[in-house]
Amino acid sequence: MINATVSSPVNVTIETKSYTVFARNLPYIKEQVELNNRKARKLGLPVYTLTVSEPRKEVMKGYLFEGDQHERSINAWVRDIEVTGPTKIAYDGWTFVGMIEHHSGGNMLFGFEGIDTGPWTHAESSCDHCRSNRIRSATLIVRHDDGRTMQLGKSCVEKYLQGCGSFTILERATFVLNAEIHVQGEPGEGGGGGGVDYVSTLRVGSIAVELMLKEGYKKEMGEGESTKGKVFSFLFNKAARQKMIDQGFEVSEEAIAIASEAIEQFGDLPDEQVRTDSFLNNVRTIVRDHYVKMSHAGILIGALWGKVRDRYTKPVKIESDHVGTVKERRDFSVTVTNIYEFESFYGMTRIVKMTEGSNVLVWKTSSDPKMKAGDTITITGTVKEHGEYRGVKQTEIQRVKVKA
């Protein structure tokens, strides 16, 4: 860490942080760094530098195929990056520590790293400098080296930081250096689209829940479009929405009921539960507003997945034992339960899940398995290994042949 004095009494802390990001997102990251540098040059602050490695394959967590409801290990092209730039700007001992967005349903809190957010959960949009308590969309919290804190309107922040521009630099520095979800996410999904800033929380929630009931929750990583991306497409892209409808997508009464119940529960979260959890505080604020700003929709969608996952995809305990011994070739009388297909770096891969009695067997193959879900058949195969998945013992077999 280097402390670089730009112009007294401003003090800038410069840090280098390292990330592993998806190679496809490098242009997006470079764009954000350049935006930071333009503002930095205008303010006479240090610019950001970006060091990027060569692309490489790495096993990362994600979803392999449409319909997969379990996060798995996948191969992905990634790059290692280092971003060096200002992460803390102090002025006469005062440092920016957080921002409060004021909504009718409550406050949304951003920043506040290592700080109790309780005092700011219900804070009014007042300014401790000019002593005015008027309607403001946002206020800033600054802290002095001696422990004092101040809540400021943006127009008053110049007394404690070097102008509003310094706040923009700090906000963007936090965005680039601290918010991994942004550097790992899918570019182009961050705006409201179509000029629409706010959408009903129940509408966003119902669409998201219907998607999650059908295919689980997809983060902005791995194969396929994320759940948030699909919600945005359905709301704001007429062609994409029509394609989803043509493929049979329809928001069910069940999805509406689940979203409505979850939204009500989020809105009733007590102060003591959100006091030390800014994520839950922000979720509560969103649902109490009844309309969500589309740049905040990902917060709501992520929270809803917790409700859907707990209700529908919690693993059922299966009393399964390992079958045979490793390298043993033998016959199995099985029932095929599922066959998953997905594209990998090595072409089409199929995962065939079977049961023999209560015991679970798995066969991975790139060829046509010549069976379908529901079949009860006798096969010959070699035990490859004994393993466990989500607490359930399973036997992986290979070189499988269906007996006539």
Write up what this structure looks like.
The protein has 404 residues and is an alpha+beta fold. The chain has 4 domains: 90 residues, no CATH class; 66 residues, no CATH class; 115 residues, no CATH class; 74 residues, OB fold (Dihydrolipoamide Acetyltransferase, E2P) (Beta Barrel), CATH 2.40.50. Helix content is 30%, strand content 35%. Strands 1, 2, 3, 4, 5, 6, 7, 8 and 9 form a 9-stranded antiparallel sheet that branches. A hairpin with a 2-residue loop joins β13 and β14. It is elongated, with a radius of gyration of 26 Å. The termini are far apart. The relative contact order is 0.11. The N terminus is likely disordered.
What are its keywords?
16 strands; 404 residues; five-stranded mixed beta barrel; nine-stranded antiparallel beta sheet; disordered N terminus; single chain; 10 helices; alpha+beta
